[in-house]
Amino acid sequence: MSDADFNRLLFVARRKTEMAIEPNDPTFYIASLHSQLMSYKGLVMPRELPEFYLDLKQDRFESSLISYHQRFSTNTLPQWRLAQPFRFLAHNGELNTIKGNRNWALARQSKFETPLIPDLASLKPLVAQEGSDSNSLDNMLEVLMMGDMPVFQALRLLIPPAWQNMPHMDPDLKAFLEYNSMHMEPWDGPAGMVINTGKYAICGVDRNGLRPTRYVVTKDRHITFASEIGVYNYPAEDVVEKGRLKPGQVIAVDMEAGRLLKPEDIDNGLKNAKPYREWMDKGTCAWKNVWMPKRISPTGITTPPTFIRSTIKSPLKNATKSSAS
Length: 325
Hints:
By secondary structure, the chain is of the alpha+beta class. It folds into 2 domains: about 65-280, Aminohydrolase, N-terminal nucleophile (Ntn) domain (Glutamine Phosphoribosylpyrophosphate, subunit 1, domain 1, 4-Layer Sandwich); about 285-320, no CATH class. The chain is built from 8 helices and 12 strands. The chain has a 5-stranded antiparallel beta sheet with strand order 1-2-3-7-8. A 3-stranded antiparallel beta sheet has the order 5-4-6, with no helix packed on it. Helix 6 (about 170-180) crosses helix 8. The longest helix has 19 residues, at about 5-20. It is globular. The two termini are about 25 Å apart.
């Protein structure tokens, strides 16, 4: 059994356990249940974590990848279960569209299906309808990944860069983003994110770049993604590379290949994964809104202002059926 299949079984087991216990115990929460990830949460000061979780003091306890989040609760009442990171994601920001995103997730959950999880319909709701916006975003990311969607595509589906009215954007990349925009509305708002999948360490920023996100690479082959520079002490002469993410960019480390993936590497991989430009050229129907001002007919009847839609491109009859991958 592959790690991915095993983690899907763990996902199903966790959801069924939550659904059985939470109605009678609203404080019940499973921090993590994954073959490669462990989550530690606490309503404590950072220096107290090793006192609370004694395994963090053990020299034998090692990991090549760690995501860490420290904050004071602002828009939700402090709760242990809402401490970050969540199961995959830590998020600094606010999702201004969270109510609409939750409603759409609820409305569409009957359409989520995959042969990889035959009983997915029995696990509803798939996205938390209350609590923190970051928790709901993590739920949606998890569902997409459990359905075998690549994590970079899932991230671009949820929090895309600006692509409309961008005449100089690579047309293949724009086709990928436009194609995915038809499947889900953006989870929009100021956002700086780090994501830990066990294989990838990922850092991303929203389309407006309203949360600073920086990275530093040192000679000892350590890379740090953070919202601020200088989050830990390192000699300045050991810095190999440093920089910041621009609006809408994503950077990552492939832990298995030992490779740093720059924004252009991730974009190239996404746009070349499928023939998105060909699909969009063959299978889209665009409309143009034409404004018709108020008119008075010869009989004296006033016609209110209206929009009339006219077709400007309709090659659907020649389109071939393609899977939404």
